[in-house]
Amino acid sequence: MAKLVLIEDSKNLAIALKGALELNGHEVVWVSDGRDGLMAVKKNKPDAVLLDLMLPHISGFEICKAIKTDTNIFRTPVIIMSTLTDYDSKQRAEEAGADYFIEKPYNLKMTLAQINNCLPKKK
Fold first, then answer.
1. Residue 53: CB partners within 8 Å, gap ≥ 6?
2. How many domains in the chain?
3. CA 8 from chain center: how many Å?
4. Alpha carbons 33 and 72: distance in angstroms, whole number
5. How large is the C-alpha radius of gyration of the chain?
6. Of 72, 114, 50, which is closest to residue 63 (Cα–Cα)?
7. Rounded distance between C-alpha atoms, residue 22 and residue 100, angstroms
8. pLDDT in the model for residue 108
9. Is residue 77 reached through a cis peptide bond, with omega within 30 degrees of 0 on the bond before it?
10. pLDDT value at residue 109
11. Average pLDDT, the chain
C-alpha cells in the first residue's frame, strides 16, 4: 500500500505500530533517533512520515521543519504522534509544517484508520 518512515524512540511503541502497519500491507522503515530519521526520509522518499516529537539528537519539530523546507520531500505528509499534547506543542508542530497530529497514548485500531486517512490517495 504505502511506504512509511516511522521515527519513534520508544521500542515497544515502534514494534507494535510497525507490526500493525505491516499487517495492513504497508512497508515501514523504523528509525529510533532524529538524525537517522531525517536521513531515512531523504533516502526512502516515503508516502508519509510518522514522527514523534521528543527524540534523541534532533527533535521532531526540527525534523518536520527540515522535511517541509527540502524541495525534494516537502510534499511528504508528516503525521506527528506525541505525548506533547498541550496547545503550545501542537502550535509549534503546525508552524513546523505538520499535516496531522495524533495524541499518545493512542488506540492502535483507531490510529491505523487515522494514518490510512492521512495517506496520499494513489491513482
1. 59, 60, 61, 80, 82, 84, 89, 93
2. 1
3. 8
4. 21
5. 13
6. 50
7. 21
8. 86
9. no
10. 87
11. 94
99: its cell numbers: 499535516
Domain limits at 33? 3-116
Whole-angstrom CA distances from 101 to 45, 81, 83, 85 are: 20, 6, 10, 9
Q: What is the pTM of this model?
A: 0.94
Instruction: Give tens-digit pLDDT for 37-96.
Output: 999 999 999 999 999 999 999 999 999 999 999 999 999 999 999 999 999 999 999 999
Q: What is the pLDDT, as a whole number, of residue 123?
A: 59
In this structure, which amino acid lies at residue 88?
D
Q: What is the CATH number of the domain that holds 76?
A: 3.40.50.2300
| Residue 67: inside a domain | yes
* Residue bearing cell 521515527: 7
93 vs 37: CA distance, rounded Å: 17
